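ok so dumb question maybe but i'm new to this and my supervisor (M.) told me to 'just get the structure for Sulfatase' and walked off. so i did the thing. is this what she meant?? sequence i used:
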Amino acid sequence: MVTPLQTIGSRRQLLQSATCGIGYLALMGLCKDSLAVGQGKSPLQPKVPHHPARAKQLIFLHMRGGPSAMETFERKPELDAQAGKVAKSKSRKLTPSHWKWRQRGGSGLWVSDLFPHQAEHADDLCVLSGMHTDISNHTPAMLQLHTGSFAFTRPSMGAWILYGLGTENQDLPGFVSLCPPLINGGAKNYGSAFLPAIYQGTAIGDIKTPIQDAKIGNIENGRLTHRQQRRQLDLIQAMNRSTATAHPEDSQIDGVIESFELAFRMQAEVPTVFDISGETQSTLDRYGIGEKKPSDNFGRQCLLARRMIESGVRVVEVCDEFWDQHNNLVKGHESRAAATDQPIGALLADLKERGMLDDTLVVWGGEFGRTPDTAQKTLDGRDHNAKGYTMWLAGGGVRGGFQHGKTDELGYEAVEGRVHLHDLHATILHLLGLDHKQLTYRYAGRDFRLTDVHGVVVDEVLG
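this is what came out, is it supposed to look like this??
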C-alpha cells in the first residue's frame, strides 16, 4: 500500500500511473484549474467538548507487560510478613516486596525505592490501586486497555478522543504512538477500526527500534519544489474526490484525502518537532538522554511527547519494552526502572514548570499487574494478575498525592475503590471534556462507544 508521504515524495509514481500525461501537465504548470482541496474544513479541526474540560491533551506512558504493584505504588506489609509461606495455591509461595518503601512529599504517599524520580512528584500522583480488568493474557489485555474490548476490533481510545475533540495543530497528526509494539495487537492498539481512517494514530518507530533511528519515510522531496508538490497533490485529490462522490458510502476515501493533505503539511512541521538539538544540555541531562545511558531511548520519547503536546498534538502514547518478569523480577524491574523512571520524573517536572501539567493528563500503567505469589522455583518472580493492580494519573484535573482503592492485604484482587478499565476510560474522557455515553458512532445499525454499555466516571479522583 502506498502511503500519502510516499505519493507526495515520488514524482515517478505519479508519472507511471494511468494519468501520467495529465500529471505531467499539472506538474509543468499547464493545467490551470488546480483543485485546492486543502482549503476545506478538516474533520480534525478542534471541536467543542461536551462539558468544560479539565485537560486538553493526553500522554499515556504504557508499561507493556505488567508492572508489579507491590514493587511500585501499593505497599503490602502483610505480604512481607508472610513471605515464603504457602499461598492460596499450594504450588505457590508468597513473595515479598523487593524494595524499601517511604512516604513521599507533603501527602505522605507511599512509593517504593524502585522509582526515586517519580517519588519526587508524589504530590502530583493520583494512584489507582483498585484497578481490575477481564483477562490476564497479554494480547487481549492490551487490546482491552487500548480499545475497551478484547474480543472485537474496536477503535482505540486515542482515535475516539481525536474523533471527539479534533486537534489543535492541523500540520501534525492529532494522535501519535511512539515505538508501539509489533505484537500484542499491533496496529489495533492505535487503530480507528470503523471510525473514519483519519482518526487512527500515527505510529513512529516500533518497540524494537530506538526512537533516535525511527524515521517517517519520504518526509523530504528532493525532486519537486513545494509548489510543484502542491499542484501534483491537487491533481491526485481531484481524482480522489471524484471517487468519493461516486462512492459516498466509503469513508476510507475521505480518510485517504485528509491523510494526503496532512502528509503534505507535515513535511514542514515534523522535522522541527523531532529536532531536539535546540534543547539545552541541562534538559537532555534531566531526561536521561545520552549515548550510553539506559534511559536514552525512553528519555527521547518523553521529550518528544512534551514537544508534541506543546505543538498541539492531542494524544501521545509512549511505550516501554517489557515488564513481564515471571522470574528474575529484581533484575528485570530494575532494568525497566533505570530506563523509564528518570524520563518520567523529568516529563512531569518539565510540564509543571511550563505551566502545562494543569491541562495535560498523564496516565501510567500496564495492561494488568502481577500476583503476590509465584509459580516459579524461585521467589524472584510473579505471574500475571488482572484482578488487582495499580495505575496512576497526574495533572489534567486529578487529585494529587492521593491513593484511591486498594487490593486485599496480600494483593490478590481489588477490594475497595474498584476501577475497571471501562471506568478508567470513562474518567479519562470526562477529564478531557467528553461524556463517554454521548461520544458515539453509528456503525452496523447501532451506536458504539469506547465504554460500550459499561463504565462510570470515578468522581473520587477528580481534583
